[in-house]
Automatic annotation (TrEMBL):
InterPro entries: Cyt_c_Planctomycete-type (IPR011429), DUF1549 (IPR011444), DUF1553 (IPR022655). It comes from Stieleria varia. This is Planctomycete cytochrome C. Residues 42-101 form the Cytochrome C Planctomycete-type domain. Residues 151-365 form the DUF1549 domain.
Length: 907
């Protein structure tokens, strides 16, 4: 107490001495003048480990960053704009600092003068030094100097260092059940169990057993069920849902193509670096649905926010923030969004870095767009073709109507005569709009054996003849010995000397005279010899010069019109059926917003213009402010997917490891920064990351390595000695058994009952009676083929739990769920035992058993165990359950098996 009084007295004395210098106009010195003020009034709450509101004033680097909620508290050169000065001079007792009393006027003046002078804080005067935020394992290059060359070597080395060793291998069928759940999310079928046992029997040597295990893994990785299983892990991380969230929570009816893209990409084993690029700039790579990744988060759409400009600016900032968070957490395992209001407190990420990342995606809008894939292009081609055909039919209808009104005659294969007033012409064109159909061959290419054009005069002459010097051209000709273009005006009649168009139903021929002549009559025929009546032009136009002079003469116009109306109706139906292309909620891209550094993250306090640039601690890629929108996203994707990026491969292999062992080598999979957990096996993590890149970024390769390792194959049995050393099994001295996720439980129940619908893709099925809204969702309880699909295909309502399996810790898509929490609650047991879903599925399970096993009770019990647990019941189990089954029926046993730990846990 005495020392505290002496210390305070000394500081007061110093203040009085300093005051005389300040009033005398001396320069304010940080060590002599400013730090004593901080020590007396600020250090108790804002120094060392005490950092109220995130503000630290004993280290220059931290002090200049400021607190959590108010950005830089010291604005060099501008004391009037510095929150520090406002807080120490406030008239509000609630916000006044320090909280135990006001600073003296002299102390306030010292701080004012120091800030106005530029807040000079010399190097080397701080009594403590902050740790270099960049000096962290995850920001350093992936190590390539390894003494171990397999997963098992790394694990065994760490176990030995702690006096531990691996557990014995698990039983073969336990491994089969484990790996089948891990890779497909479904239990092995009895047939798959028997096939595996056969493979083991064939290869009794250790080499043969490895072949049997490898064959199982290859089969599972080739299954479409693999993509469905592992897509769920990914969708948890990126917050996928089929509604927008927030208060209104309206439906996103076109979000599902992104879900289907992820499933397909995983099944294809799309290289992970390509997987990254497709999700950031898929519109340039033929993967339109993939960019749904950018906008999976909650958002308020334009009609759901205030119409005033500040509200619009804030909503836009929030939307961009979600995109930056999605990219940084998912691919980089960093919480970049923490730097929105101030420099990151733990990682080397400045507010400038944050807004530079935001500039990469500043042209992304939360909206639908039409997919531009091959299917869309084909749809557009069909639409264009059918519209042209419909227009042609309409033209033919119009001409038929005109002909009907004139009461004209039908065309004749032997001879057709068109008479009109004399016309001075140099060119005559005969255009065929339609032709009749060959009754047996189905051909409708129109055919003409001779075309005659007569000039006026006492002795009319055929000026169409080639001997007159007339040149003939056509839209196209089907050439053969009998059919040639020169036959149309060679003076010979008959099919063997005719012209045939090369276009079904249509075509034209044009006659150009050597000089202008007056013409008034045209005669043409299909076959003057009268042997061929098919492929006859029936709707045509004759043009002399540029004037349409006459139309074909058709009787029976009503019948022809009826056929054309039917054809037009058919085409219009086809056009209507095509409609618009499949839209996808994958973002629209426009001219990027101008991005500025925002003081304290406030859109109403913009500062300097920021260009697109990557995190300065991890690279130096930058673009100009004028960079095109797509070029920005492409540059970002290439930087993230670069093998030299120290985070990308580490983050993904850690996620894959977590999917197999329940926890990653780093327990915080979306935060590998300074505030995240340390890796349990850092060298193994780097070895896996290196192997990932060397394999061509193959995710299936990583799965194969892990599940074929001895580490993965270990028994899950515990032992007291090992548990005392490593109760959390982080060193992997045994396989860490865990409960199945909600989706696996539900899908497995349907699978063993024989009711699982394996239809893939498309619009999600409904768990509720409505697909969006704030509240009032009523569960759909009745089973149908649609809602018996795998749970990943359900329409996911954000922040609304599914009635039965939502109790099993399903993420609500409000936040990224890189790790699912695992709870044990009474409601889980009640739902799984008494829900209508369980009762209905148990009944279907029982019906399947009776259908496949007959009436024999022992056979039914045996088959129930085979389907549910992948094994036969023991003799004791048969004795225990047989009386119950005999009295209450096999459905009761079915329900009991689906509630057993053996069914619900990865063994």
């Amino acid at each position: 107490m005495i020392s505290r009084v002496l210390f305070s007295f000394t500081l007061v004395a110093v203040m009085l001495w300093v005051a005389s210098g300040v009033w005398a106009g001396q320069r304010v010195d940080f060590v002599r003048d400013v730090r004593p003020v901080f020590e007396l009034h600020c250090y108790p709450c804002h120094a060392g480990t005490e950092q109220e509101s995130g503000l630290r004033l004993d280290v220059r680097e931290a002090a200049m960053v400021g607190g959590d909620n108010h950005g830089p508290d010291i604005v060099p050169g501008k004391s009037s704009e510095s929150p520090l000065i406002r807080m120490i001079t406030s008239d509000d007792d609630e916000s006044l600092m320090p909280p135990d009393g006001r600073m003296s006027d002299v102390e306030v003046e010292i701080l004012r003068k120091w800030i106005d002078a530029g807040a000079p804080w010399p190097d080397g005067v701080d009594r403590v030094q902050l740790k270099d935020k960049r000096d962290h394992w995850s920001f350093k290059p992936v190590s390539t100097e390894m003494h171990a060359t397999s997963i098992d070597e790394f694990i065994e080395e760490r176990l030995a260092a702690n006096g531990l060793e691996m557990s014995p291998p698990a039983d073969d069928l336990i491994w089969l059940r484990r790996v089948t759940f891990d890779l497909t999310g479904l239990p092995p079928t009895p047939e798959e169990v028997r096939d595996f046992q056969d493979l083991l029997a064939i290869g009794s040597s250790s080499c043969g057993m490895r072949d049997a295990y490898t064959a199982v893994v290859d089969r599972l990785l080739a299954s479409p069920r693999y993509g469905e299983r592992w897509a769920q892990h990914w969708l948890d991380v990126v917050r996928y849902a089929d509604t927008h969230g927030f208060e209104v929570n309206t439906e996103r009816p076109n979000a599902w193509p992104y879900r289907d893209y992820v499933i397909d990409a995983l099944n294809r084993d799309t290289p992970y670096d390509q997987f990254i690029k497709e999700q950031i700039v898929g519109d340039a790579l033929g993967r339109d649905a993939a960019t749904g990744f950018l906008i999976t988060a909650s958002v308020l759409l334009p009609g759901q926010i205030g119409k005033d400009e500040p509200s619009i600016r804030l909503a836009r900032q929030d939307a961009l923030d979600e995109i930056v968070n999605n990219i940084s957490q998912t691919f980089l395992g960093l919480s970049v969004g923490c730097a929105r209001c101030h420099d990151h407190k733990f990682d080397p990420i400045s507010a400038r870095d944050y807004y530079a990342m935001q500039a990469f995606v500043a042209g992304v809008e939360y909206a639908d767009r039409e997919m531009a894939g091959e299917e869309t292009q084909e749809r557009k081609r069909k639409l264009s073709s059918w519209r042209a055909m419909s227009q042609a039919v309409q033209t033919r209808l119009d001409r038929l109507i005109q002909q009907g009104e004139a009461g004209v005659q039908k065309t004749d294969a032997k001879e057709n005569v068109e008479r009109f007033e004399p016309i001075q012409a140099r060119v005559v064109r005969f255009t065929i709009h339609d032709a009749n159909l060959h009754p047996s061959l189905g051909l409708i290419e129109p055919c003409i054996d001779e075309f005659e054009i007569f000039a006026t005069g006492d002795e009319p002459r055929n000026v169409a003849l080639a001997t007159f010097g007339t040149k003939v051209t056509a839209s196209g000709s089907r050439e053969s010995a009998a059919h040639k273009l020169q036959h149309i005006n060679d003076g010979q009649y008959g099919n063997s000397h005719s012209w045939m168009s090369d276009t079904k139903g249509r075509g034209w021929v044009q006659f150009e005279f050597p000089e202008t002549v007056a013409v008034n009559r045209i005669v043409w025929s299909r076959d003057r010899l009268g042997r061929f009546q098919d492929r006859l032009p029936t709707v045509y136009t004759i043009e002399a010069g540029l004037t349409i002079e006459t139309l074909s003469r058709i009787a029976g116009v009503s019948a022809a019109a009826k056929d054309l109306h039917a054809e037009k109706a058919r085409l219009e139906k086809e056009i209507s059926g095509l409609g618009k292309g499949q839209p996808v909620f994958a973002g629209k891209f426009r001219q990027p917003d101008e991005i500025r550094l925002l003081l304290r993250g406030d859109p109403e306090q913009p500062r300097e213009l920021i260009s697109p640039a990557v995190l300065t601690a991890l690279g130096d890629v930058s673009l100009s402010p004028e960079a095109e929108e797509q070029d920005r996203r492409r540059a970002l994707a290439q930087w993230i997917a670069n093998p030299q990026n120290p985070l990308t491969a580490r983050v993904m292999v850690n996620r894959i490891w977590q999917g197999h062992f329940g926890a990653g080598l780093v327990e915080t999979p979306s935060d590998l920064g300074n505030n995240g957990a340390q890796p349990t096996h850092p060298q193994l993590l780097d070895w896996l990351a290196g192997e990932f890149v060397r394999s061509g970024w193959s995710m299936k390769h990583m799965h194969r390595m892990i599940v074929l390792s001895r580490t993965y194959r270990q028994s899950a049995e515990s032992n007291d000695r090992a548990a005392e050393i490593d109760a959390g099994v982080r060193l992997l001295w045994r396989f860490p058994s865990r409960r199945l996720e909600a989706e696996c439980i539900r899908d497995s129940m349907l699978a063993i009952s024989g009711k699982l619908n394996l239809q893939m893709g498309g619009r999600g099925f409904d768990f509720f009676d409505k697909r969006g809204g704030l509240s009032g969702f009523q569960p759909v309880e009745e089973l149908s083929p649609a809602n018996q699909r795998r749970m990943i295909y359900a329409h996911k309502v954000r922040r609304e739990s599914e009635a039965v399996f939502g109790a099993f810790d399903c993420p609500d898509a409000g936040q990224s769920a890189a790790v699912r929490r695992v709870s044990t609650t009474p409601i889980q047991a009640l739902n799984l035992l008494n829900s209508r879903f369980t009762v209905d599925v148990s009944r279907s399970f029982a019906e399947r058993i009776e259908r496949e096993s007959g009436d024999d009770l022992a056979s039914q019990i045996k088959h129930a165990y085979e389907l549910a647990l992948g094994r036969l019941p023991s003799a004791d189990e048969v004795v225990d359950v047989e009386p119950m089954v005999r009295e209450f029926g096999i459905a009761v046993l079915c329900r009991a098996l689906m509630n057993s730990n053996e069914f619900l846990f990865v063994p």
